[in-house]
Design brief:
Layout lengths: L1 E6 L8 H4 L2 H11 L6 E6 L14 E4 L11 H15 L4 E4 L1 H9 L4 E3 L5 E9 L12 E8 L1 E3 L7 E5 L7 E4 L3 E4 L7 H10 L1 H4 L1 H10 L6 H13 L2
Parallel strand pairs: 1-2, 1-3, 3-4, 4-11
Antiparallel strand pairs: 5-8, 6-7, 6-9, 9-10, 10-11
Length: 235
């Protein structure tokens, strides 16, 4: 299996030596999820990096970003064009946070700032019964989150996978081709804490403290990664 990772952000300089980038974080996560036999190519889209062709890839993953999916920045518009072509070609895609939102936007859904404010820390979601491989055994799952935008309407023909009061459309699939999640399976608590520290003033002290305290809870990022691996490998 060969995965194309469209990396849609640059980590802060002080954290780059530890984590390198979101693309590398996903490579490490998929190795832990049993995809050590996969190969990975990472393209940094804000720098204008894209594959010449997607034909050799079994799937394409879109990472998170501090940018808005509905931004008119040139690189976001270029990325949107690539996603629209991938949708037309029925290429398997995985979307995380910004990627989840951008794919939904390209499918015709509404994406905007959340009226509920930032979703941060370890968040719990109700997971719906699904025919996805390796479905969760429990009805709730937890993921580390960091977002102020949300998918507000379910894309046409999409199946809702996960929701909570703060984020009603937290994960969805479209057929055998698209699997998107608002939370971050690739995050670890230490990285979430770093982001929370950078956004402390914007979050407000009460939300910041609650989010930091939530990071002591277990999260299901590895399980979601295993689901994504099985989704890609399923013929």
């Amino acid at each position: 299996m060969k995965l194309c990772i469209l990396e849609n952000d640059t980590l802060a300089p002080e954290i780059q030596p530890q984590y390198i980038g979101y693309g590398n974080m996903f490579v490490q996560l998929f190795h832990k999820a049993g995809a050590g036999h996969w190969s990975f190519d990472i393209f940094h889209t804000p720098s204008g990096q894209f594959p010449v062709s997607y034909a050799d890839y079994d799937a394409v993953l879109l990472t998170g970003s501090q940018a808005d999916a509905f931004s008119t920045e040139p690189w976001v518009l270029a990325l949107r064009g690539h996603v629209q072509q991938l949708l037309a070609d029925k290429k398997k895609m995985l979307g995380i946070c910004f990627g989840h939102q951008l794919i939904a936007l390209c499918l015709g859904a509404q994406v905007a700032r959340s009226g509920n404010g930032w979703g941060v820390g370890c968040m719990h979601y109700d997971w719906k019964p699904t025919n996805l491989p390796l479905p969760p055994q429990q009805s709730t799952m937890a993921l580390l989150a960091s977002h102020q935008d949300q998918v507000l309407t379910l894309p046409p023909q999409a199946e809702l996978l996960a929701s909570n009061a703060h984020c009603p459309i937290a994960a969805y699939t479209v057929g055998e081709e698209i699997f998107c999640v608002q939370g971050h399976p690739e995050f670890v608590p230490e990285y979430s804490a770093f982001l929370l520290g950078k956004r402390r003033m914007a979050l407000g002290e009460d939300r910041y403290i609650r989010a930091i305290q939530s990071l002591t809870q277990a999260h299901d990022g590895l399980h979601v990664a295993r689901m994504m691996r099985a989704f890609v490998e399923r013929s």
